[in-house]
Amino acid sequence: MLKHSPVAYNEQYGAYMVFRYDDVRSVFQDYKTFSSALYDGLSEELTFDSQIQALDHPRHTQLRALATHAFTPKAVADLEPRIRTIAGSLIDAMLTGQDIDFVKQFAVPFPVTVIAEMLGVPEKDFERFKHWSDIIVEISERLLTGQTEELPEHIAAYRDLKQYFQSLIHQRRTEPQNDLISRLAAAEADGEKLTDLEASNFCSLLLVTGNETTTNLLANLIRTFAEHPEQWKLLQRNRDLIPQAVEEVLRFRTPVQLMFRLVTKETEISGTKLSPGDRVAVFLGAANRDPAKFERPDVFDITRPSGPHLTFGHGIHFCLGAPLARLETSIALQVLLDRIEAFEIPAAEALEPLTSFNLLGLRKLPL
Ligand code: HEM
User: What is the pLDDT of residues 228-239, one digit of tens each?
Assistant: First the structure.
């Protein structure tokens, strides 16, 4: 596809698929021609209104600015000791058991615990987040693939989540604490305070984007090293390669495979003409293996110079949580390297791949 059909229409997605690195990057870059407002026209029950990933400039810029301070590399680095403790205790608990499932015992609870603590939600509610986050991923997938009928249990779960955050926000407005929910509750965009709904939507976005994606990255990381034991040995000998190893896994097994955009004016990508109202699906995994950009793209090589992969997007919507995801993954690697000499997956069939049209990851990873 990269070579012969760099832009191709896909009936199922109702969108033009875009594969080449330079094309994908240009779509992200040109946010005026390629809008993120994909969810317009949803029922009030399911509205993603005011979630920044689905907003265009200037509202996007105003709202995003409210949370950026919490996710700068410096702010995130301050969380390092706590993140290390969480990772250490989960991995120790995992290693004391008989049947290890890395996804269930580490890749799922680790990012949920970190983001829930950052937001400031009570620990007793962490379990419910995984459920809510799965439901939201399912809702977005259904909507993006044109399955518009709304399922009552989705609506009910989404309503519960919104109510949950709205009541926490309400409470933090009167009794602020040192957490992200309190800061969002007090934040102002364009001189006005966020409504409870806007602040709650922001929290649920952070919850979902922060979980599912990082879980898949962690599972992909272990799977990839299990398949490349020589690279694991190399990392054991030289831990300075950890940052590069994280970047290489992000490139090699891209957790979010595609993103959509809505065309707002006549344009063209690699010779294919597009009109207002057309949808495009940019394929991040394909772009990350474009031989025009990466040498030997199908080889997993942690000594590869950290290249500009597109795993976190690019431009104004560049992933807000990228510094956090990178830190969590580096810490997970350090903790694993401290404790594990070698590991293997019992059999390739033991892996349960996700059945998702845009997420690449595993449901189960026995070690
Ligand atoms: C946006 C991927 C982790 C929060 C994005 C985008 C991608 C992405 C591709 C761009 C969306 C677009 O252009 O439409 C990932 C991957 C992650 C990860 C692969 C982990 C490996 C996180 C974490 C958080 C987070 C840990 C927060 C806790 C966000 C937010 C946006 C975003 C809020 C929307 C930014 C905006 O629209 O301005 N992410 N993400 N992500 N991500 Fe992440």
Answer: 999 999 999 999
